[in-house]
Amino acid sequence: MGIRRINLLVLCLMLVSAGAAADRVKDIAVVHGVRSNQLVGYGLVTGLMGTGDTTQARFTVQSLASLLGRMGVRVDPKRLQVRNVAAVLVTADLPPFARAGARIDVLVSSIGNARSLQGGTLVLTPLKAVDGKVYAVAQGPLLVGGFGSSSGGSSQTKNHTTVGRIPQGALVEREVNFSFKGKTTLQLDLMSPDFTTAARIVEAVNKSLGAELAKADDPGTIVLSLPEEKRSNLVGLVAKLENLQVEADNRARVVINERTGTIVMGDDVRVSTVAISHGNLHVEVQEQTLVSQPGAFSKGDTVVSRADQVAIHEERGPIHVIDKGASLGDVVRALNAIGATPRDLIEILQAMRAAGALKAQLEIL
């Protein structure tokens, strides 16, 4: 099974490498200033079937009393039972150029000791940005991607029942001011700064516009000087630039997740000449209990003893030599030849990196 997984990994990477095409500028860079903003708010979810916060969550009791007070209902917080109410944090992303009246999705998460938010309704909740201003308000029924049930001393839960979403549940009330009008320059920010990629984008932009208007100030920033005739239609200019085809360049990298046994390698990974031998050591211990009973009416004692057997087996494998400059496929084929599983491959790659034979950045998650 392990060898099949490694072979599948090599096949997928080879197919991607063989059919790889140039990337669009919009997929590797963004226009400076065109970004989303994070919003957060504190609210209450009502209508739960006894799965809300208990009286131990005092902030829920205080929030419910305050909510009722604003509606003209005065109650003693000490007399409130809040099992049908849960305190939550509401988060959302305000997309760029979102206008007042637009709707956005929100994520609702319990912060008390509620067991489930299933079937609940979020009460009107203001959503604020880091500047403390309200940019949206959220309200509506929750969609919970799970369920839970309990009876007596047993219970069953699937997925997270204390987190839910409200699609289009927030209404934008305030806009983030950003305009292209009056701009004399346009800046592109690379998502993954790289000298080679920046130089290729500059070359593609200048070739498309027919003039030397773009330059790279650093590996992550490209500044485009806007001539007078281009300033009246910046939307069309950006649409043209972001669809330019550019081959992005990245450092050779191997990403390993030891917890799940996941390995992701780029097709530009190379190695120096290295010899690899990998064997597994198996230690097997068998416990045997020996009981000796005396004869009838002999007044002897029953003797219990242990006889443990220890066996050690070591798999012997040949030493495989990988030549200098070998590609990813060559490396994994050689590792397949010695029967390496994904777990073994993780250890081998780390050893190759320690020996200086792996020409790639090794990242362990």
Q: What does this entry look like structurally?
A:
The protein is α+β, with helices and mostly antiparallel strands. It folds into three domains: 1-21 and 251-282 and 318-365, no CATH class; 23-33 and 179-246, Gyrase A, domain 2 (2-Layer Sandwich), CATH 3.30.1360; 37-172, no CATH class. 22% of the residues lie in helices and 35% in strands. The chain contains seven helices and 25 strands. The strands form nine sheets. Strands 3-4-5-10-7-6 form a six-stranded antiparallel beta barrel. The chain has a four-stranded antiparallel sheet with strand order 2-11-13-12. It has a three-stranded mixed sheet with strand order 16-15-25, covered by helices on one side. Helix 1 packs antiparallel against helix 6 (328-337). The model is unreliable at 1-19 and 281-285 (pLDDT under 50).
SSE blueprint:
Layout: H1 2-18, E1 23-24, H2 25-28, E2 29-31, E3 37-46, H3 58-70, E4 86-94, E5 103-110, E6 121-128, E7 134-141, E8 147-151, E9 154-158, E10 163-172, E11 185-190, H4 195-209, E12 214-218, E13 221-225, H5 234-242, E14 245-246, E15 253-257, E16 262-265, E17 270-271, E18 274-276, E19 281-286, E20 289-292, E21 303-306, E22 309-314, E23 320-322, H6 328-337, H7 342-354, E24 358-359, E25 361-364
Parallel strand pairs: 15-25
Antiparallel strand pairs: 1-14, 2-11, 3-4, 3-6, 4-5, 5-10, 6-7, 7-10, 8-9, 11-13, 12-13, 15-16, 17-24, 18-23, 19-22, 20-21
Helix pairs in contact: 1-6
